Structure formats: structure tokens, C-alpha cells
Amino acid sequence: MQGSPSAVDVEWSITKYSPEANRNRLAHTAEVESPAAGPEQASMGSIQKTVSRFEITAVYTHPEANVDVVLVHGLNGDPKNTWTAKDDHNHSIFWPADLLPMSLRGLQANILVYGYNADVYSTKNDYSASDNFIYQHAQSLVTTLTLYRKSEGSSNNAIIWVAHSLGGLLVKRCLLYSNDVKDRNHEDYRAIFVSTYGIVFLGTPHGGSDMAKWGQMIQNMSDAIIPRKLFDSESVLLKTLKKDNETLQNINIHFLDIYQRFKIHMVHENHKTDVKGTKMLVVDARSAGPQLPGVTYYGIEATHSGMCKFPDQHAPGYRNVSTAIRDWVRESPSVIQTRWIVERDDKWVRAQTEAAERTREYSETYSTPLISPSDTPSTTAFPSQEESQPDLRSSWPPFIHPDRFRPNAFFKGREEEHRDLHRMLMDTRRRSEGTSAVLIQGIPGAGKSHLARQYVFDHKDDYPGGIYWIRSTTVQDMEEGFWRIAKTEAIRQRVGQEKKDDLSDPQKMVKIVRNWFNEFNGWLLVLDGIRFDNDKVTNFIPDCKNTSLILTSTERPDPGNYLLDNPSIMELGLLPAQAARDLLLQEMGKRQPYTSDDLRRALELVQLMDRLPLMIHAAAQQMNATREPLAKYLKSFRDKPRPGMLPAYKTIRDQLQTLGDTSALNLMYILCFFSQLVPVEMLALGLKALDRATPIRTDANGKPRSLNKTFITLIRFALIERSEMDDIPSSSSRTSEHSSDPAAEPLDVLRIHSVVQAFFIQLLAEEKQLEFWLARAARIFCLSFEAADDRMKKDPTTGLPDDYRRYAIHGRKLMEHLDRHYKSKDVSKNVAAELASLRQNLKSKLSKLPKEIDGLQRAISAGIVDGKEVLDHCSVFERTNSLSSESTNTSNASDGRGPDATMPQRRRIFYTAAAGLQSRDPTQLTRLLTIQPTLNGQSLGSIDP
Fold first, then answer.
1. Same topology between domain 47-347 and domain 405-571
2. Where is the segment annotated Disordered (predicted)?
3. H or E element in which residue 195 lies
4. Residue scoring higher pLDDT (764 or 410)
5. For 794-810, what is each residue's pLDDT tens digit?
6. CATH for 405-571, among 3.20.20.210, 3.40.50.300, 3.40.220.10, 3.30.1360.30?
7. Does residue 301 contact residue 270 with C-beta atoms inside 8 Å?
8. Separation CA 594–CA 763 (nearest Å)
């Protein structure tokens, strides 16, 4: 029945709203495939050429439209004349009605024109020049369009704007107003912001910081429209545009908070206009097209007033504009539908929060402890007295690994390789001759580290000499890992066996640790992600009987390389199809027995993903985050072209764009240029290097949010991993009595897989945005280093060699990218100059790092050798060392971090006190464990470590 609601719509109208019901409805409707439209269904819409001077006129309507194309004229414009040209036969061509409907044939869209009084003069008696300010025009546009769409039953239609000249500023102000509406009586106005998908700006003066030039440009626009002699006084609107230009600057600045949510074309005029006998560009290319990531730029061979008039389909600029509109009409309905789901979810949460706040006014107030029982330190390193004492025994073998190292959540399909790995590492003959080494080799994302990590946690008890896991992507990573072993184990145990000066010499640190490994047996060393293109890696390979070595790599060394302990090769192929299928269903949280449909769809999907565990994990995380049904995900995955890209990550990127979460994507565009482990504080210290055009701390509506929330989004979609507060300690020593770091608080670190980084770098290169984002990443690094270096210089207890070493690792990675791209022929001179300048700045900073690392490492090593080590040295990346709470802004109870920002420092004090008491007075240890809950809000001053 035409015009009557569907069964789904009726059910929706009478069912109590909830986010779950909202998503279920989306899932239900998404899987219903409509039959192919027959000839009788593909009816064209109706054309209306009688245009009202003011408000909305629908010049083309389609009976099944799900998109509204809205055209907005500029200064002294008209909703018809602005868009009308004369053809070769002197016929008037009103292209929104005469040309565009044919360009959109086969698609369902309405075409609307909006008229408002933007006159700077008037020669008629029926109305006067405009006396409204631009914000008043914006309010009128939002109200008029909202009410029109409500009257037509099209409030949820996607919106595509085409705006000429200052009409573009009006559209920007309109979207800002729509997004900022907070009055419950006007919530309908938000529909304009939520529904907007794309904007074509034709000759819009987005402006710049040169106020004098801005005023001259506005004067040129008014002079180009009408000679001054025809009017004696300026209209209010023109006065606003010319003299109150701070208002316009604010529009442009605040629009940067939301622009990445939309598809945008910025178009400039290429022909000069005759202004008072002088030919000039009314709005030059720089003002009409400020360089922003993700925006499309081009020119039209026409004057300022002629660039919006197309006499035929071959007119300059028409093909570009109409093709963009056609593409957006095709793409926008599904995207805007998803954004409406998110909007309703947010609205429901706001309503629930408001109801809870009102209820709380009339209910008893309870005081909530800062940390719940489940979050108290008893769940971390020392759960109870009975459980804690074994953790502190010096007889336990050490387990030294990167910060935030934890067991796998899932392990599927590699059980046979797991057994073979143990057999090869424990091979009696090989261990009797020296270290038994195994290389786990496979393509990126095959699960090499996953298998090694599973083995380490399953077989810790088989290695009484301890387990040592070192990230080995670069030589600098390996040096960092060996330094950790040196300061916690090797140096003090080599006292008396090595020269004192040698033990304090950073240049001999690798040799000292390797010699230390060669002195005892029973250990397992894991070098994860090693590359064999640098001869220095062989300096890190020990060789001792009854020991084992795991290497993971995408490469293979030369056969029989004795310097690498002649490793046996375990090549990881693809996951077995059934195991890959079951892994996907398991990570999705599906319960057995699986349905036949789930088994069939999961099998097809993992085959499309080449059965790579990393991609399977990413796909499962995306479906969990978006509640997208497996059937719908499979269909979209199957239909999308995948030339040279990892399809799971392409799908995730598209989903984040659909949700409007551009901050999360901006952060990924930056992190992909760093090395794989990025301390949160390193990132936070450099954030001020970003401008408003590249936000990473705003939500989908452009509103401020904590950096934590951006991290959470990326974690949900399996793009990054982040440390958790209750992970196992980063090291434990057999001699904790003397350990320089017995209770190290593991740093808050982001981990980005190299496959994910490679995907985003390739994506940015294909979209011609690589150099832009590389420059932002380099800016962040340089500012972060300056802030951290200043902090360490001012506070002698802050700063470790590893801090500078981490800067060296990330700096060299960025330098590799800059060396590769700063002379690129594909970038403009300005961008090339910026990259060259950043490269020089980065080079200067990297040159300082060896001296800083050497000095700090030498001092700490000497302290260990002399027994005068300082225990209160802490990393510059510990959050408690932040000079400003704004640097990270990540302490948020709702994020699982708890409200007490000083908790990491207190826990560090607790660990240190516990280790000291274990060695001096074990009876006091019981007392310490008893008072442990006071860590929540009280100091440990009563315990003297």
C-alpha cells in the first residue's frame, strides 16, 4: 500500500526504544533484499521550474527519494538566476532542473533550491536589502529545511549541499548551529547535521588570517555584483562580512572540528572578473581551497559568477560537479542510515543520564569507594597473603618481557605446531651441543608471535633459568631489551668477572649480557620480529648448552648460519580452513553448537581473508563493535574490490568513516609512521603540534572528548592494543634484594601491528595524503621530544636511558619515511619544503640521543656496580610525571582506569616496599599485605622500604 508504513515501521513506532532494539532493527532491515526494480518501478520524478524567491522550492522530486540535493546561492544571489545560464540559442538553462535530473537517472533523489535575502542593494519596492546577520540566516536555513523535510516525511534523507560563494559560509554556519542545538524542543534541528553527507563549495571564500585581504576580497565580491553608484549605504549583511570578519573567521575555525565527517569538494574560479575596469580573481584558489586532508580540489574555467551556471552537460565544471553529486547520492543512504542509528543511541543515553540525574535528587546519596573491590590491588601483583609470598620468592626464575605482555585470549589451529616447537627446542642432541634454536617464519599476520607467546606461557616451568622476550624489529629494539636484562640481572651478576669500567660502559653492554647468557643454562630467549639484513643482530645471539632460542621473522637467514645458532625452520602456512572458521566464530562470541548458516558464512569469509589470523581477529572485533550480522559483513566484504589491500582493514576504515569517527582515523594516520610500541605519554606530549584541521580528541559530532575515548574506538576495532593496569609486572629478578627495578610500573603503551601500519601507509599513498600525515607525525615527535627532554633536564629523578632509546627508535622510523618521501615529485613545493625542514629538525634531535643514552646508562650501571643505585628514578613516560593533566587526559573511571591518577606511583611504591621487606624483615611483609587496600587513598608512609 503506497504511503502506508511497512510492518517494520509500525513495529518501530510502538516499541520502546533502546540501543539494542535500534541495532536489531538495522540488522533486520539490512538483510532484506528488495527485488530488482522493473521498468514500471523505475519511474522518473517531476520537475518544477517555478521557483519561489525565498525558502525551499523542490525543482525535482522523486517518489522514492532517500537523498535531498540542496543548492544555496551567495551574496546578492537568487535561487533561480544564480543557477541559470544561456545556451548557444539564447535559451535559459536552469541546470538543477534541466540537466541534473538526467545526470541522476536511475537514482532516487530530490533537488531543492533555497532562497534567502542576501541582497546588498535593492532596486525594487517590494523588499529591501538584507538586514540579517549570517547567524540569523543560518537559523532560518536550519528551521526552514527541517520543517520542509518534516512536512514531506523525509527528515532522515541524506543531504548533499551545493553552495556558491558566500552561500558556502552560510552552509558551514548552518551545520555548526544544527550540531550545537541543545534545547529539547529543537532536537529535530540536529537532523540537518546528522543527515549531511557531502558539500560542493563553489568559489567559497574560506579565507585566511590576513584580515586586510579578507575585507578587500569581500569588497571585490560586492563590486563585482553591482557598482557602488547604485546604492548609497551598505546592507547589514555586507557590513557583517566586511567589518565583523572575526565572526567569519570563527565559522571557518569551528568548521574544522566537523569537516572530516563530510565528503567535500572545494572549487575555485580560473577566469578573472572585470572589477571597476580591472580584471581579477574575486576569490583566489588559496582562499577557495585551503589545504585539508581528504578534501578534493579543482578549478572551473569560468568567472566567479559564471562558475555556478552550466548551459549544457559539456560546460566546464559540470561533469566534475554532477559526477560527485551522483556518486554521493549512491553512497550516502547507507552511511546516513548508520549515523542515524548512532544518533538514536546517543539520544537514548542522554535521556537515560538525564533521568538518572533527576532520580538521584530524590534518592539517598551513597559514597562510592575510589576503587571497587574488584579493582583493588589484591587482584594484581599480590592477591592475598597466601598467594603473594611465592610471588616474591627469590627462587623464582625471571620472566623479562616487554611492558604489558599478556597471554593470548584465543589460540586455535596451531596445536600441532605448538607441540613441534616444544620438541624442537628441547631436542636433546642439539641442546647437548649448544643453544637449540628454532626460527618461526611466515608472512605478516600469520601468527608467528602468537604461537611463540602461547608457548612461553604454557612452558614457563620448563625453563628454570628464566624466559627473556625481546622485541627485535630493529637493532635499537634489541639494545633496549638487552639493557633491561643488564640492569635487572646481568651487571650485578658479572661483578668480579668483568672489569668495573666495562660494566659501566654502554658500548660493551651487549657483549656483557651475551657473556652472562653463556655462563648458565636452562633459559629461553625469544627474539621477536628479527630481521637479518643487519649484520649487528648476530652480536645478540648467545650460545650455551641446555638452552633454547626462538626467532620469529618474515625472512629466512642463510642456511646453516652458525652465528644465529643454525636454527631449525618452522614455516607457518595458512591456518587450516576449519580452524580459521572456528577461530572467527569463537572471537565473535558465538556459542556452540554453531548453526549451519554461521558455519557456511564463516568459512567463506575466512577463505576471502586468506585464513590470516590477524585479519580474522580484526573482522571479529569489527562485528563485535558494530553488532553487524555475519551475513551482512560477508556480503559487503564480498562485494568490495580489494586491489592490493588487506580487505578487513579497508572495511574497518570505511566503517569508521561511516560512523563519522574521524578522530580515530586521524590518530591511525599518525601512528602508522611511528614504530610499533608508542608510549601514551610520548604521544600526549606532542599533541599541541596538531591544529584544528586534524583533531584526535573529538567525537563524531566534533565535540571534545578524552584521548582515552579515541583509544577505545581503535581498540574495539582491533587497530591497536593498549596496556592494562593489572598486567603482570614487566620483570622479576632472582635477586630482587638488589634489583634496580624490582617493582617497575609498566608503561602505558600503544601497540600497532606492522601489518596495520603498512595498510594505512599504503592507503594514504593511494589517496595522495601520505606526505600531509607524515608531516603531522614528525611535528608531534619533535615537540614531544623537546617537552620530554626539558622535563628530564629539570628533574634529576625523571628520565631513564630507555626513554631516550624509545625516542631514538621512533625517530629513526620517522626518518626512514622522510628520507623516502621528502623529495617526492608528487607533492607541492610547500609540502616538500615542510618535509625537508622537519627532516633537518629530526636529524638534529637524533644526533643528540646517543650522548644522552650513554650518559644515563653509564650512571645507572656505575650505581649498580658500586651498590649505590638510585631506586626512585622513573620514566618520563609515567603518567604521574606529567607536568599537566591535560597532556594525557586519560584518567577516567568509565574507561576502566579509575579516578585516581596517582595510582601507578602508589603501586610502584608498594612493589618497592614489598621487595625490600621480603629481603630484610619478612614478618613486616604480612603487615604490608594486610594494609594493602589503603593504596586506594592513603600513602604508605607507615612502611619504610
1. yes
2. 354-398, 881-905
3. helix 190-195
4. 764
5. 988 888 888 999 999 99
6. 3.40.50.300
7. yes
8. 36
Contact 173, 139 (CB under 8 A): no
CB-based burial of residue 830 (10 Å sphere; 0-12 exposed, 13-18 middle, 19+ buried)? exposed
- In this structure, what are the phi and psi dihedrals at residue 467, rounded to the nearest 5 degrees? -120, 135
- Domain positions in the chain are 47-347, 405-571
Residue owning grid cell 601500519: 757
Q: In which band, very low, low, confident or very high, does the pLDDT at 362 lie, cut at 50, 70 and 90?
A: low
Residue 351 has pLDDT above 80, yes or no: no
Burial per residue of 228-254, b for 16 or more beta-carbon CB atoms within 10 angstroms, e otherwise: eeebeebbbbbebbbeebeebeebbeb
875 close to 800: Cβ distance less than 8 angstroms = yes
What share of the chain has pLDDT > 90, as a percent? 39
640 forms beta bridges with none
Classify domain 47-347 by CATH number. 3.40.50.1820
pLDDT reported for residue 937: 35
* pLDDT tens profile 289-329: 988 888 999 999 999 999 999 999 999 999 999 999 999 99
Q: Which of 237, 244, 201, 208 is nearest to 221 (CA)?
A: 237
Whether pLDDT at 140 is above 50: yes
The 10s digit of each residue's pLDDT in 903-919 is 344 444 444 444 444 44
Which amino acid is it at 509? M
pLDDT (average), residues 602-621? 86
**Which among 454, 430, 451 has a CA at the least distance from the CA of 440?**
451
Check if the beta carbon of residue 792 is closer than 8 Å to that of residue 681: no
- Return the SS3 of 612: coil
> In 3-state terms, what secondary structure has residue 382?
coil
Cβ contacts of residue 661 below 8 Å, gap of 6+?
Answer: 699, 700, 713
Taking CB atoms within 8 Å and a gap of at least 24, the contacts of 4-8 are none
Give the separation between CA 251 and CA 242, rounded to whole angstroms. 14
pTM: 0.67
Look at strands 399-400 and 466-471 and give their pairing.
Answer: parallel
CB distance 671 to 757 below 8 Å: yes
